[in-house]
Amino acid sequence: MRKDGRNNDELREIKFTDNFIKYAQGSCLVEFGNTKVIVCASYEENLPKWMDKDSASGWITAEYSLLPASTQQRCQRERTKISGRTQEIQRLIGRSLRACVDLTKIKGITITLDADVIQADGGTRTASICGAYKALKILIQKLLDDGIIAENPIIEPIGAISAGIVGGEVMVDLCYEEDSSAQVDSNIVLTNSGKIIEFQTTAEGLPFSKNQMDEIFNIAKKSIEKIVKLY
């Protein structure tokens, strides 16, 4: 039993509040326990400069930030230069959402997902991915309703969750205290059908076994199936 009373395979309370931001084209407040992230989705009818303007594809990108008071000690705003961690998370969110969308069905359109962490207690990147999927889903429906796109480009839902080995035991959905003491740290992104988008697992100390890796994957897969049902 964990300090917060959860079983090792038990998720924190998860909540999605749709259309949380009045002026956003698609938005969601996602909560994983005490981790809270606002994700907004917006679109432009043009492509990034590096893409061929005659491309048969669209694009999805993401930005991520921690608000200064979101952490136990104030974190600095990244005004002129973003950290390596932030770049890594932005790229993870972007490629996770691109993996579940047929980009040819949003031809000539760029969708941006802005994830702003307002309270951080572990698992901010995986919560951001889940919130980004929900915000994207809302935006896509608006694009369909307005006749801007003809077909739904979403191939299948995706979900993401953190997991790891803490005190020798495999656990899912780690809070900050668990994450900071984990012997193995994982971030997993899967499609609803169980296909892998990201399976990032790192030993913070001693190496782990293949059996433990399989256990981490299985606990994450079952958890993501639960998350997808909440969309």
Provide tags for this entry.
4-stranded antiparallel beta sheet, 5-stranded mixed beta sheet, Ribosomal Protein S5, domain 2, single chain, 231 residues, alpha+beta
Task: Give the topology, please.
Blueprint: E1 14-18, E2 26-32, E3 35-44, E4 59-66, H1 84-98, E5 110-119, H2 124-145, E6 158-166, E7 169-172, H3 176-180, E8 184-191, E9 196-203, H4 210-228
Parallel strand pairs: 4-5
Antiparallel strand pairs: 1-2, 2-3, 3-5, 6-7, 6-8, 8-9
Helix pairs in contact: 1-2
Description:
The chain has helices at residues 84-98, 124-145, 176-180, 210-228, and strands at 14-18, 26-32, 35-44, 59-66, 110-119, 158-166, 169-172, 184-191, 196-203. It has one domain: GHMP Kinase, N-terminal domain (Ribosomal Protein S5, domain 2). By secondary structure, the protein is an alpha+beta fold. The radius of gyration is 18 Å and the shape is globular. The strands form 2 sheets. Strands 1-2-3-5-4 form a 5-stranded mixed β-sheet. The chain is built from 4 helices and 9 strands. The mean pLDDT is 95.
- N- and C-termini, Cα separation: 28 Å
List unreliable stretches of 5+ residues.
none
- The number of helices is 4
Number of domains: 1
Instruction: State the helical fraction.
Output: 25-40%
